[in-house]
Write a structure and sequence with these properties.
The chain has one domain. It has no helices and 9 strands. Helices cover about 0% and strands about 35% of the residues.
Length: about 160
């Protein structure tokens, strides 16, 4: 049997974990699976930060070499997405995270397990099956046009044994 991968998002003070989310949409509220048109970001502002991570279920021996990047989708004028890797969870806000731009090709930096190891070993004591947190935030400037931005694709690559 193989591992099954799903995205997970954490929200709120003290964090509520939502496994199997349907999208990583950015908006003006701290919510999972949000609808951007109902929660628009004012130009020149940031989205609420998103704390996402991968979750592995099923049966496997080890998951390793976990990497994350924006693999498709162009930015509109004045738009960017920042990413912090293996960060600690804090209550999401619209304050700039100060993170670097999300990589747009396979990065050399790995995403760790939630417990901080470079691999996720199935059945090991104290192993959750989650990756470390990836903090994302959509940033805009006064040059960003009104309306929806282009769809982006994020890729999580990993090796499974």
């Amino acid at each position: 049997m193989a591992a099954t991968f799903t995205w997970s998002e954490s929200n709120g003070a003290g964090q509520t974990i939502y496994d199997g989310i349907g999208n990583i949409n950015f908006g003006s509220v701290d919510a999972h699976d949000l609808t951007p048109s109902s929660n628009p970001i004012t130009f020149g502002q940031n989205s609420f930060s998103k704390y996402i991570r991968g979750k592995f279920t099923g049966t496997w021996t080890t998951i390793s070499n976990m990497k994350f990047w924006k693999s498709n989708g162009s930015y509109v004028t004045g738009e960017g997405i920042a990413a912090g890797f293996n960060v600690s969870y804090t209550t999401p806000t619209q304050t700039s995270t100060g993170d670097s731009p999300v990589p747009t090709s396979e990065p050399s930096q790995n995403v760790n397990s939630y417990e901080g190891a470079s691999t996720i070993v199935h059945g090991a004591s104290g192993v959750s099956g989650y990756t470390g947190y990836i903090r994302l935030q959509l940033n805009t400037t006064s040059s960003t046009p009104a309306g929806a931005v282009n769809t982006k694709t994020f890729t999580m690559q990993y090796d499974e044994v």
